[in-house]
Write a structure and sequence with these properties.
The chain is an alpha/beta fold and 359 residues long. The chain has 14 helices and nine strands. It folds into two domains: 187 residues, Rossmann fold; 161 residues, Rossmann fold, CATH 3.40.50.1370. Strand 3, helix 7 and strand 4 form a beta-alpha-beta unit.
């Protein structure tokens, strides 16, 4: 098994993702660090989805919640978010509380030693002295991966969970999205053969990059990427999916594909990444919005998803449609992140036994 200690950073950073995934894995194949979507094969996805459902059921009783909170009561987690977030932050905080972890947080670098000039790498190494898990969200491309490599080589390896890294990956959002899809289609044949239509800012949307990679674990998925030309999906994503035998379509015609969709994954325009002021505002996005008229084009059994936050790409009137799944995604995220944290500390077998013995 490959180990990070076998590589300096320059050599490690140039490795294929499959080799990096092996370095970041535990002996049982589940991730020790969770950095990118390609770490999760079909077996790992099934195990985490099952665990999320088990934790959800166990937490319904007082005895079950006491059991869950006893799993990691002796552990501490640092939630280190230097990129603005409320939803993902609270989702991870709630997941930690479900499992009994005590938490610390930094949500503004100006109140940390970074304000004095300390590097983020040194800040994270400091946190690893106090905490047993670091959940991090950052604008900085590759920082989560570099710190996972560094902490794997330290005397006290501490796992890192990437809660959003630059424009590259958002693996835990993708995990909860797969969980939402699985729950939505579990009585209708599962995820095999679905047509998934991704809409919006696909060039800069890290959620789409991660979700499409996870869905490559399922047979017969047709990925339809719908966006203005300026915000089209990257060629690297298309190449990776096609290499995995997945069908990919690139289009700028949302109305054409809505009737074909089993799942529509809407995204907002990510103008926080604009290189020049007002750059995104000059792009015509009027054809890439969902209202009641667009919902009428969709199948009765299709679902509408969104990683949130939204702006005006989904009209509020759509919220009452039973096919709108984005609020369920929010709640699913808490359970899936609890399952991932439990897996990180090798607690899934205990949870599975409790579930089988008591429910």
């Amino acid at each position: 098994m490959k180990r990070t200690t076998d590589y300096g950073w320059e050599r490690f950073s140039a490795l294929p993702l499959a080799d990096k995934a092996e370095c970041f894995a535990r002996p049982d194949g589940m991730p020790f660090h969770t950095i990118f979507a390609q770490q999760f094969g079909r077996g790992a996805l099934d195990r985490l989805c099952d665990a999320a459902t088990q934790i959800r059921a166990i937490a319904k009783t007082r005895a079950g919640m006491e059991f869950l909170q006893g799993q990691l009561f002796h552990k501490r987690a640092m939630i280190y978010f230097t990129q603005p977030s409320s939803r993902t932050f609270l989702s991870f905080l709630s997941a930690c509380q479900i499992l009994g972890l005590r938490t610390g947080e930094v949500r503004d670098a100006s109140v940390s030693s970074e304000f004095k000039g300390e590097s983020r790498e040194d800040s994270i190494r400091t946190f690893s002295s106090y905490f047993d898990l670091i959940v991090m969200r950052t604008r900085e491309k590759g920082l989560a991966e570099k710190m996972a490599w560094a902490l794997s080589r330290s005397r006290r390896p501490v796992p890192i969970i990437n809660a959003g890294s630059g424009k590259d990956q958002h693996p835990t959002q993708a995990l909860l999205d797969v969980y939402t899809l699985r729950r939505s289609f579990e009585r209708r044949g599962g995820l095999r053969g679905l047509t998934v239509v991704y809409v919006g800012d696909l060039a800069r949307g890290r959620t789409v990059r991660s979700l499409s990679q996870l869905l490559a674990n399922y047979e017969g998925i047709r990925h339809v990427f719908v966006a203005p030309a300026q915000l089209a999906i990257g060629e690297d994503v298309l190449a990776s999916l096609r290499a995995a035998g997945q069908e990919c379509v690139v289009s700028d015609d949302m109305a054409k594909w809505l009737p074909e969709a089993d799942a529509v994954y809407m995204t907002r325009i990510q103008d926080e990444w604009d290189e020049s002021r007002g750059e995104s505002a000059r792009i015509d996005t009027s054809r890439f919005k969902i209202g009641l008229d667009q919902m009428r084009l969709m199948k009765p059994g299709a679902i509408l998803m969104h990683p949130l936050p939204r702006r005006d790409e989904i009209a509020p009137e759509v919220d009452s449609d039973p096919r709108a799944m984005y609020w369920r995604q929010v709640r699913n995220g808490m359970w899936m992140r609890a399952a991932l944290i439990a897996s990180t500390f090798d607690r899934l077998s205990r949870i599975d036994k409790y579930y089988r013995d008591n429910l």
